[in-house]
Amino acid sequence: MKRNLAYSLLVMLISVASCSFTNQSFETDDKDKLLLDLITYVLEKGHYEPKNIDDDFSVSVFEDFIDVLDPTKRYFLEEDINEFEQYKFQLDDQIKSTDISFFNLVYDRLIQRMEDAKVMYKEVLEKPFDYNKKESINIDYEKMSFAASKKELKERWRQQLKYATLGTYDSKMKGVKRGDTGDGKEGSEKSKPMTPKEAEKSSRESTQKTLDEFFDFVNDLERKDWFVQYINTIVDEFDPHTYYFAPDEKDKFDTSMSGKFEGIGARLQKKPEGAKIVDIISGGPVWRDARLEVGDQIMKVGQGDEEPIDIVGMRLDDAIKLIKGPKGTVVALTVRKIDGSLDTVELTRDVVELEESFAKSANIIKSDEKFGIIDLPKFYVDFDDYTERNAASDVAKEVERLKEEGAEGLIIDLRDNGGGSLKTVVEMAGLFIKDGPIVQVRSSGKGKDVYDDKDERIQWDGPLVILVNELSASASEILAAAMQDYKRAIVIGSKQTFGKGTVQNVIPLDNIVRSNEHGDLGAIKLTTQKFYRINGGSTQLEGVKSDVIVPDKYSYIDLGERDQANPLKWDKISPADYKAWDGYIDYEQTVANSAKRMAGNAQLKLIEENAKWLKSESDEMEISLNYDAYRADEQEHKKKMDYFKAIGEYDSKLSFESLKYEEELFTKDSVLREKRDRWHKNLAKDVYVEEAVNVLEDLKNNSLKHGKLAAVKG
């Protein structure tokens, strides 16, 4: 069945919705049991692909909950795990009967073991570390077994604490203050280097203070905070985008969805060694600072001049609470970069500049030819008034402006675009084709809906290239897939895009219970639908495979939906009825020409070499605790980093200019001029944009419609 877009607005990624579940009585005055009953009911009735809550499910919940509580295996002992295992195949029955005895046992033991750890780390830090000793630590915690005794656990703490102090010891030996990378860059702060004995003692004292603050923070957590972790372990088994929000977290979620972000502007994922950056929000402090990137792992968090708190092993929600804060305050993040190096980055928290999330365009000048590029960070929409501002209408304006200034080809840059509104995707795709289906959507147990562009007018019928990477997700994948299926555009970028082909709705739990004595029960973000290309294949997991595959720094690093826990599978349905674009000749030859150029491109060879090196560095799990070996590794690492600096010094010889309307704005807005100058400077170093221009030239020369002006879409 086809649905007219004029009467439907499906917000991709997340939309706040009510729930029309059948009435069911939830007879319990225990809030924990009520929550468990409610959430399992919603999952069973509303999830796109409900799971069987059976023994296999029980084992997964068991293993994942232990991992959530103790990812670095520094609290529980082997005997604890053996005792817990009596529940390994019983949790499915407990969930169905709202029995929480497993949680109670594990929670009580965790609190006990944390009290033991407080004594343990203080005893370890009373004694000096011998940095001349030849020893190493393996940080592959997932493959590590639990300690068999308290003696073994204490030795594990000793190694982990020595590892935690090593970087601090090195900085103090070199006289480098926190926040300085030690590379001698302008602005680095230096103090008098310490003697080895002074540096060792000072490092232990810093680590002691950090752990004291960490456990003070943990002590403030209540039992209900840990129970939310148990609930979300159950919820997470369904898919990585289904999530329970406690009442206070729901309020923060609503605020973020309103477009008001206050913090550092990054989304994080829990990892054993800290919090991994998986998305950077355009316009936020991280984006503006430009030193952090997707794949970096935050290990410590400091407030202003205070010693940083170690977040390794901390719950992600709690780590985020430390990282977030009021506008204008400073947070210092100790980060393990994707190349394995350690760095400390100080950021001033701020509200994300929404303007940087909007579409922007530029002219590209190559000899006597002019092309256009439109950068789209996300598919935005004003939820209160669609006509007020949205990505589709903004892109349409930029297309028209580029046409007026003589652009002969167009690049749509969707790199790092995490998605947004489905309606804007469908309308945007309609700018480039006559009419026809754009995407198919299926709900659980129901037939498919086909979303069409019904407007026969075409705003841009000239050469078109779409740039993507591993972080192009959701709505980005829909647009790229549709243009690829129509053979309307050449897709250039990573081997595949992110692979998120699902839709979530947020359901307030209070909407399901007629009345309760516990107040606000929070909400659940639930996966309810799945996207499919017009050729029938899902964008889930496999994403969109580029026509021309080019390497980047993430080529060999696990990113995307496939790196998430419990992703839904890829599948396909019947294709929609559509006809390929007939505006180009030699489409396949254009792709072949591009692939040939890329194969011989020296810059891309260097980028691929860097990508392989980053992979090898990220895979290194055995780290020396000997200072001389540590320094040797650091020096070798710096040599390699210097070698790869040439990547950022590339010059495509292309020129970039702002459009006339922006040039007029610069006279009153010097900040906007600075932002555009920075963007243009980066574009000039961008080998992917350079190749996109080469492809546009090929398409222009081979277009059947060459010389014909694009029709204006009203």
What does this structure look like?
β12 and β13 form a beta hairpin. The strands form five sheets. A seven-stranded mixed sheet has the order 21-18-17-14-13-12-23, sandwiched between helices. α5 crosses α6. The relative contact order is 0.12. The chain has 20 helices and 23 strands. The longest helix is centred in the first third of the chain and has 25 residues. Helices cover 39% and strands 16% of the residues. The protein has 714 residues and is an alpha+beta fold. It is globular. The N terminus and C terminus are likely disordered.
Binned, the helix content reads 25-40%
Report the end-to-end length measured between terminal Cα atoms: 28 Å
Poorly predicted tracts of residues: 1-19, 178-188, 253-261, 704-714
Portion in beta strands = 15-25%
Counting DSSP H or I runs of 4 or more residues, the number of helices is 20
- List the strand order in the largest sheet: 21-18-17-14-13-12-23
Keyword list:
16% strand; disordered C terminus; 23 strands; 6-stranded mixed β-sheet; alpha+beta; disordered N terminus; 714 residues; 20 helices
Brief summary:
The two termini are 28 Å apart.
SSE order and pairing:
Layout: E1 14-16, H1 31-46, H2 55-69, H3 78-84, H4 91-96, H5 101-124, E2 136-138, H6 150-174, H7 196-219, H8 223-236, E3 243-245, H9 247-257, E4 262-263, E5 266-271, E6 274-280, H10 285-289, E7 297-303, E8 309-310, H11 316-323, E9 330-336, E10 342-348, E11 350-351, E12 360-366, E13 369-375, H12 391-404, E14 410-413, H13 422-429, E15 436-443, E16 448-453, E17 464-468, H14 475-485, E18 490-493, E19 502-508, E20 523-532, E21 548-549, H15 587-599, H16 602-619, E22 622-624, H17 627-644, E23 655-657, H18 660-666, H19 670-684, H20 687-702
Parallel strand pairs: 1-19, 13-14, 14-17, 17-18, 18-21
Antiparallel strand pairs: 2-22, 3-20, 4-11, 5-6, 6-7, 7-8, 7-9, 9-10, 12-13, 12-23, 15-16, 15-20, 19-20
